[in-house]
């Protein structure tokens, strides 16, 4: 009877200590983060609520009091800004992204072939680093694309435009189209855009520092870095 009571007390104590942390994750990284969250929950006993959007949208929410514990961005600048404002105590790269072009109908194999298209979707460059990378890529072509561009809030939106043939093709995160059921994927040469260095931080406002730090370290672990590499991103050691 004493043994059963001890076990019951231990289970209740563990349940009481379990926490739920809120994580801001850029739209391009949502799929990998969902897998990471499942593994984290099994390992830690804690749970995660994911908040996804463009890096710009998430940053605006963070500085306006959104209760994020961990902040992942698709760039370095927004995390560095959080550090500068003492909203984060530490930050590191967690991956580098890859830009791709996806079309349901057009098989693009080089940058010049984009000239033949009339409607191209990119994420808003002021909100999404992948949009900025797409803009940089297009700058290598001696043609004004401004009349051809359709803007999405993030790369998930631009992917949907291409999926539903609302545009001829879209610039997306490579992870979005790693194994498409249909259509064509062109992995944009990395020489055409600045490295998409994705950085994360634990926010100083978090009241669940231990659980947040656990996730932070877990994302940097060899296990998760290998997973990230398999899902279309670059291991931090190769960034």
From TrEMBL:
KW RNA-binding (keyword) present: no
Keyword terms, alphabetized: Metal-binding, Molybdenum, Signal
Gene3D superfamilies for the chain: Periplasmic binding protein-like II
Signal peptide, first to last residue: 1-18
GO biological process: molybdate ion transport
The keyword Iron is assigned to this record: no
UniProt cross-references to InterPro entries, sorted A to Z: AvModA-like_subst-bd, ModA, ModA/WtpA
Domain of life: Bacteria
Molecular function in Gene Ontology: metal ion binding; molybdate ion binding
Binding positions for molybdate per the UniProt entry: 55, 155
Pfam families, per the entry: SBP_bac_11 (PF13531)
Family, as annotated: Belongs to the bacterial solute-binding protein ModA family.
Protein name: Molybdenum ABC transporter, periplasmic molybdate-binding protein
Species this chain originates from: Kangiella koreensis (strain DSM 16069 / JCM 12317 / KCTC 12182 / SW-125)
């Amino acid at each position: 009877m004493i043994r059963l009571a001890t076990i019951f007390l231990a289970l209740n104590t563990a349940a009481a200590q379990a926490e739920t942390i809120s994580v801001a994750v850029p739209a391009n990284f949502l799929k990998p983060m969902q897998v990471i969250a499942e593994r984290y929950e099994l390992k830690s006993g804690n749970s995660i609520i994911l908040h996804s959007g463009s890096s710009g949208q998430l940053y605006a929410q963070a500085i306006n009091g959104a209760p994020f514990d961990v902040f992942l961005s698709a760039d370095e600048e927004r995390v560095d800004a959080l550090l500068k404002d003492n909203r984060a105590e530490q930050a590191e790269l967690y991956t580098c992204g890859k830009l791709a072009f996806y079309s349901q109908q057009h098989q693009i194999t080089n940058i010049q072939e984009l000239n033949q298209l009339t409607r191209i979707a990119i994420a808003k460059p002021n909100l999404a680093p992948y949009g900025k990378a797409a803009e940089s890529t297009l700058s290598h072509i001696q043609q004004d694309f401004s009349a051809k561009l359709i803007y999405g809030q993030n790369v998930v939106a631009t992917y949907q435009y291409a999926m539903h043939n609302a545009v001829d093709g879209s610039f997306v995160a490579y992870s979005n189209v790693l194994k498409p059921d249909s259509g064509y994927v062109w992995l944009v040469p990395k020489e055409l855009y600045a490295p998409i260095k994705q950085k994360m931080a634990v926010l100083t406002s978090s009241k669940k520092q231990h659980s947040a730090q656990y996730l932070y370290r877990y994302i940097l672990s060899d296990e998760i870095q290998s997973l990230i590499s398999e899902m279309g991103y670059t291991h931090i050691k190769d960034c």
